[in-house]
Amino acid sequence: MGLVKILSVVGARPQFVKLAPIDKALRNAAIDHVIVHTGQHYDPMLSDVFFDDLGISEPSVHLGVGSGSHGAQTGAMLAAMDGVLDEHVPDWVLVYGDTNSTLAGALSAVKMHFPVAHLEAGLRSFNRRMPEEINRVLTDHAADLLLAPTAVAMENLADEGLAGHAVLVGDVMTDVLYEVRDSVQSSAPPFLAELGLRVGEFYLATIHRAENTDDPARLEMIVRGLSEADRPVILLAHPRLVAKAAQHGIALERGSLHSRPAVAYPELVGGVLASAGVVTDSGGLQKEAFLLRTPCTTVREETEWVETVELGWNVLANSTEQIVGALCRSRPTDTDAAPYGDGNAAAKVVQTLIDR
Ligand code: UD1
């Protein structure tokens, strides 16, 4: 009997972006797709808008787990998953990226002897202080099939003895980005007019990682860098950042810095296209900036997406001065390198699942 049912476990914003092209490719192949939403992200702007804008099928199951400490959040997902897997009996459980929802999905499935495939396998920051790094390493070692986005990811998996399970499929975020780019190309995002900004005259910023938000001194250093930039900086503020800044008494509205709530995916893509540069700690946005050929400044000590740095489109910055200096650097040399694939990764993922 052929492949009949895939069960995807998702829960956080970047996972909905990755889910979109997979859901579409499974529909095209007439394969039953059960979507389990853990509820890690529940604000409509972090969740529902992605399902609506990207045409993703309604989740079949909502675990409704919500926010909490790592243990409470991951544990609640694990407890809820057993019954879901018993009910749906999938041929493959597909988990995405590196969040607590990824690890919980993989761990529950492997313990119940369901085959697990990890999409975006093999990424490493080699920084064990990041919750995402622990989630990735454990998920890769639990999974039966490792769907790697890049050649570097394949090498990382080989170094850990996992080459036998790994397949290079390309990056599904490229698939969805190219589609959305083509649909927004000509229209500047609404927030530009609202803020009285013109195309090419501002920087777009996002900051949300625990390493950057939880230590008040580090957060203040970053916010100061954004506020001293040579052009206006539009900070699309994740709820975690807003909560931590309020708790530490750090103002997100000062000097060049202007904050507004997170935007939907098409508006984000339009914003990156319209900006003079991006400053971020998001993995997805580093890559999106590169694919749209917008210079990126990454506020982290290291990056998993090393190709963006090697090709000159991304610079790591870890002090106020480095952030200010990196933002106004001159435009990198153009490149036609395509380390993240050609926009057809989801079809390769589905074919790989069928072949196995
Ligand atoms: C999570 C992922 C991170 C990913 C990010 C994308 C983990 C360990 N981290 O981080 O890898 O890059 O998602 O956005 O899985 N909150 C809301 N509304 C929501 C969700 C969260 O207000 O819908 C607030 C709550 O205060 C919550 C905080 O954000 O405590 C953190 O949320 P959480 O899901 O724990 O992690 P993220 O920081 O979003």
Distance between the termini: 12 Å
Bound molecules: uridine-diphosphate-N-acetylglucosamine
Strand content: 15-25%
> Helix-strand pattern, N to C?
EHEHEHEHEHEHEHHEHHEHEHEHEHEHH
Give the mean pLDDT: 96
**Anisotropy-based shape:** globular
Strand order of the largest sheet: 3-2-1-4-5-6-7
Structural class by SSE content: alpha/beta
Number of strands: 13
Task: Describe this entry's structure for a reader.
- Helix content is 45%, strand content 15%.
- It has 16 helices and 13 strands.
- It has helices at residues 13-28, 48-53, 70-88, 100-111, 131-142, 151-159, 172-184, 190-194, 210-213, 216-227, 239-248, 265-274, 283-291, 306-310, 320-327, 345-355; strands spanning 5-10, 32-37, 61-62, 92-96, 116-119, 145-148, 166-168, 203-206, 233-237, 257-261, 277-280, 296-298, 314-316.
- Helix 5 links the parallel strand 5 (116-119) and strand 6.
- It is globular.
- The model has no long low-confidence stretch (mean pLDDT 96).
- The structure holds uridine-diphosphate-N-acetylglucosamine (UD1).
- Uridine-diphosphate-N-acetylglucosamine (UD1) binds at residues 12-14, 40-43, 46, 67, 98-100, 131-132, 208, 238-240, 243.
